[in-house]
C-alpha cells in the first residue's frame, strides 16, 4: 500500500489556497494527446525469454569492447583497473544514500575527503567540493560562483568558443534567470585574442585545457590580464592531461572544473558522470556543493564531517547562490580509487602514452593523400583532421570496418564541415591505429 | 547577556552607535549567543549604499546563516576586515572588536524608529517570556 501523506481534505485545502478547482487544471497547458497516453505494450515474457530478448537487442549496439574507438569529444575510454569496481561495488559504498551523519559515515566521508584532496593536488587549487553531476554543470556552477564572488555587480562572461559546446549550452540554460550575458562565440578567436573582451564589467573568463579541438592554447599572461580587470579565470581542464601538464592553479586560475569521467568511470552511454570543482580558499564560502573537512573527535582522534554547511541551500534557503546540495559520491569514489591505483607517476605515464599515440596517429594521417591534420597548436590526445568527405559518411564507412570514427565538428562549428576530431587513448593499440590509417586510405 | 548602554537597537538584534554623521553597526550580545560559534561574516563593499532595514550582510554560524539588516540608511565607508580571519570576534566582543560596518548616515531622523538600550532589554525580556525567539 503506498504511503500518501495528504488526505482529500488536505488536497482540497491546498487547491483552494492557490485558487484551482481541480488538480487536472494544473496540467491544462499540456496537450491532451500526450497527457495521459495509452501505452501499447507487448504481452509479458518469462524471465529467460526477456533476458534473451534484451541480449539480442544489445548486440545491435556498436560497443567499445568489440569496436576500435577513436571518438572522444568530452568522454574518454581509458582502462579501468578492476580494483575500482571492486571498491565501488562494496555495499557500504554502493547502497548508501547520502550517509552524512559523521557518527556512522566515517568511511564515506573519508572517501570524499580523499577525492577532494586528490582533485586539489591535480588542479593546483586549495579546496575542492564533493563533486557535481558532470563537467557541464560544474562549468555552469563556476560561472555562477564568479558572478556571486563579484557580488552580482558584473554581468558579462567571456567564454571561449572552444569550451565544449555542450558545456556552453548548459551554462546558457543555467544562467537564464540571472542578469548575465555570455560572449565570446567567435571561432576565429583564440584564448589570447579573446582576452581583449575581458573588461571591468566581466565576472569571469572561461577557457578549456585542452580545448574542445584538443589544442593546448597559449595561456601565458591571461591570469595577469584577467586579474588586472578584477575578474576571475575559470579553467575547464581534462584531469588526465593534468597528470602531464602544469596545474592551472600554478598559472593563476581561480576556479578549475571539468569532467571527471576519464578518472575510472566508464563511458556508460553518457552517464552518470562526475563534475569536479576546485577553487581558492578565499572563495570557499561562495562555492556550491557539499564539502567534507577533516577534524578531531571528542577524544582527539582524526575524523571527517561535512563542513561549512551554512553555505548550502538547505540552510541558506532563498539566499543560497546555488541549488546544488548533492554530489556524485560513487563516481567520485571511483575517481579517487582510480587515482590512488595509478599514483602520481602512473597518471603521468598514462598521459604520456596517450600523447605519444595520438601524435603517432597524427603523423601517419598527415602522410595520407586527401587528408590534412589541421591542428597546428600543441595537442594532447585529440586533434582535427580535414577529410575528403562529410564526416558522417566517413564514419559510416569506418563502422563497416569495426571502427568508431571521430567526432563530426561540423555539428557544432558550421565552418568545420568535413572536419573530424580524432581521439587516441592508451586503449588504442598500434595495430588499431594502423588499421584506422589503412581504413582512411580505403574510404577516401 | 549584556545590552550595552548608549547604543540603538533593532528588534532583529543589530546595534548602531552614532558618531556625528557616521555610525558603527554590529550585532548584539543576545544575537551572537543565539547564533553560537560564528564561522564567517559576509560584509558589503565600501561605497555600497543601503536603505534602513536592507540586508547588508550575512552571518554564518556552524548551523545557520542569518541575514543582517542595516539600522539606518547610508553608505558603507568601512568594513571590519578583521572578521575575515577572525569571525569569532563577533562572539568574543560583539559591541567592540566584533563590529561589522561603519556608515555615513544619510538620514539621522531614522534613528527615532530604533530602540534604546532599555527598550531593547525590555523587548528581549518580553520575547523570553513568550517562551521562544
Label the overall shape of chain B. Answer: globular
Oligomer: heterodimer
Which structural class do you get from the secondary structure elements of chain B?
A: alpha+beta
What is the CA-CA span between the terminal residues of chain B?
15 Å
Give me the count of strands of chain B: 10
Q: Segments of chain A where pLDDT lies below 50 for 5+ residues? A: none
β-sheet strand percentage of chain B: 25-35%
- Count of DSSP H/I helices of chain B: 4
Percent helix of chain A, as a range, is: 25-40%
Instruction: Please summarize the sheet with the most strands of chain A.
Output: 7 strands, mixed
Listing every helix as H and every strand as E from the N terminus to the C terminus, the arrangement of chain A reads HHHEHHHEHEHEHEHEEEEEHHEEHEEEH
Helix content of chain B: 10-25%
Largest interface: A-B, 9 and 13 residues
| Tally of individual helices of chain A | 14
Let me know the average pLDDT of chain A: 94
Description:
The complex is a heterodimer of chains A (444) and B (133). Chain A has helices at 8-18, 32-35, 47-58, 82-88, 91-94, 106-123, 135-149, 165-174, 191-194, 222-228, 313-316, 329-366, 391-400, 430-443, and strands at 68-69, 127-128, 156-159, 181-183, 202-209, 232-237, 255-259, 275-279, 292-296, 302-306, 372-373, 382-386, 403-404, 407-408, 419-423. Chain A has 444 residues and is of the alpha/beta class. In chain A, α4 (82-88) packs antiparallel against α12 (329-366) and α7 (135-149) crosses α8. The longest helix of chain A is centred in the C-terminal third of the chain and has 38 residues, at 329-366. The N and C termini of chain A lie far apart (63 Å). The mean pLDDT of chain A is 94. By secondary structure, chain B is an alpha+beta fold. Chain B is 21% helix and 35% strand. In chain B, strands 5-8-9-3-2-1-10 form a 7-stranded antiparallel β-sheet. In chain B, β6 and β7 form a beta hairpin. The longest helix of chain B is centred in the C-terminal third of the chain and has 13 residues, at 117-129. The radius of gyration of chain B is 14 Å and the shape is globular. The model of chain B has no long low-confidence stretch (mean pLDDT 94). The interface between A and B is small, with 9 and 13 residues.
